[in-house]
Amino acid sequence: MANIQPLGQRVLVKRLDADEVSAGGIVLPDTAKEKPQEAEVISLGTGGKDEDGKTIEFTVKVGDKVLISKYGGTDVKVDGQDLLILSESDILGIVS
Amino acid sequence: MANIQPLGQRVLVKRLDADEVSAGGIVLPDTAKEKPQEAEVISLGTGGKDEDGKTIEFTVKVGDKVLISKYGGTDVKVDGQDLLILSESDILGIVS
Amino acid sequence: MANIQPLGQRVLVKRLDADEVSAGGIVLPDTAKEKPQEAEVISLGTGGKDEDGKTIEFTVKVGDKVLISKYGGTDVKVDGQDLLILSESDILGIVS
Amino acid sequence: MANIQPLGQRVLVKRLDADEVSAGGIVLPDTAKEKPQEAEVISLGTGGKDEDGKTIEFTVKVGDKVLISKYGGTDVKVDGQDLLILSESDILGIVS
Amino acid sequence: MANIQPLGQRVLVKRLDADEVSAGGIVLPDTAKEKPQEAEVISLGTGGKDEDGKTIEFTVKVGDKVLISKYGGTDVKVDGQDLLILSESDILGIVS
Amino acid sequence: MANIQPLGQRVLVKRLDADEVSAGGIVLPDTAKEKPQEAEVISLGTGGKDEDGKTIEFTVKVGDKVLISKYGGTDVKVDGQDLLILSESDILGIVS
Amino acid sequence: MANIQPLGQRVLVKRLDADEVSAGGIVLPDTAKEKPQEAEVISLGTGGKDEDGKTIEFTVKVGDKVLISKYGGTDVKVDGQDLLILSESDILGIVS
User: Fold this and answer.
1) Domain F10-19+33-91 is of which CATH architecture?
2) pLDDT in tens, E7-26
3) ipTM for the assembly
4) Does F44 touch chain G (CB under 8 A)?
5) Which of helix, strand or coil describes residue A38?
6) What is the chain A residue with the closest CA to F50?
7) Do chains E and G meet with 3 or more Cβ pairs nearer than 8 Å?
């Protein structure tokens, strides 16, 4: 499968279908202007650097289930999967 | 119940129904363009860091009743509860 | 009565009716796009911090009569009183 | 007469009628989108502070006749006089 | 004649009529969305200060013929002359 | 063939046709508001400098297959090829 | 001919007609929302200064053929020639 390395503080995530929601049973509303959705982190970006040249760490890690805003980021379809590249700052939270 | 860990300076709050308003009897107007609402803080974000690398403290704490602007943040429904993820800077005040 | 502690550089003020205007007889125009109004400061926010970690002082104090822009801030009704939470930087001046 | 102490870098000015224009005979156009007007400085704000904590000086002083943009600032009527609270940075120039 | 002292980095300029264009024969297009015009610098502002407190020098000087954008700045009519107060950064170039 | 040297942090890329997509079989959706596309990096810009005067390195290199947003950058046609000049920060990721 | 000295980081360029395009045969599309065009650099601005007071160097030089965005900058007609004053940062690349 093709590999996508996101640039900078971006992450690559895979949208989760309704039947893939977490065991806790999160149901995401389908009507709000800004609909959140669950997704799984596939890969992290090349990262950014702070003012002292140190690489800024990502808070999320590969495999995390995250809540994202429906209209953030850019959709990419890879090998039939709906993927999304978005900035880590557009991830609302981690579901566990 | 599923757990949601907000990222960065975000907090997770639970909207309070009218019959859950504080003993002091705050009635929130339903007509203004930007309607404030009462909510209870459920969990705090992973936090941010200031320029010296020190974690920025949250002013609110879990269990606080807070006033929020109706249109701020992103709604999430978890186990039948209306939750909201919003930046702490969008919390107007703490009700006691 | 319920107590509201504004967050950060916000202040809580109580709008003053026309018959509560200052002795000096300030009459506020009712037609301008941005109508100023008189209000009394009820409580100060938790404050912010400058770059050296020192708390930023408020210029206004509880009890001050202030001029505010009509459309700034967020209205809150507490125990029948029209209150308003707004940033101190949106206060135009102090009336004495 | 009621006293208004502007906050921060704001100043309080009194609009000058056409028959109060400066001896030099400045006539201000009445058609432009952004109409300048003459006004007299009534009082200076509480001032701001620079990064070293030193108070930033005002360039205008009480009594100065100044040119202001018609739509800047906020109108206040005090004891029958048309006053205006605006940021010093919105004053275009001093007339002498 | 009334004197106008522009504030900060602003300059006061006098629009030049078509028959006052420079000897080189610059003809300014009358159709573009943002029409440049020739003007002569009448007076310089009180200036600004850089981070070390040193006054920032003006690049233009009194008497310079300059190209300005038609819609920048604010028109002022003084003793029958069309004057304009604008920021030096809105001057496109000096004609010689 | 004419050579184009992008300025600053810009890069010059060549859009890839559908039959030029990577072996992994990435199919890009044609309906989204912001359609990503695959492109190949042709040349890097002259670069920028950080606060210490050091040249900022590019993360992508000539020959990289990258994902770009359809509406970012500026199209240029050179010798019959569809090229695009865009900021490196508008490149979403590298495909391998 | 009249001389125009651009201010700051601006440059003065002369638009090139289609029959003046570079030998490499760059054909610029005429339909895109933001149409790039070829131009030749006529003169450089007075320059800006960085935080240490050192003059910032221009990357382009007089005589360079450059690609510019059609809607950037301000048109000026001098002695029958279509000239344009624009910021160097709006130049996309150098053609050689």
Assistant:
1) Roll (2.30)
2) 999 999 998 865 444 545 55
3) 0.75
4) no
5) strand
6) A51
7) yes
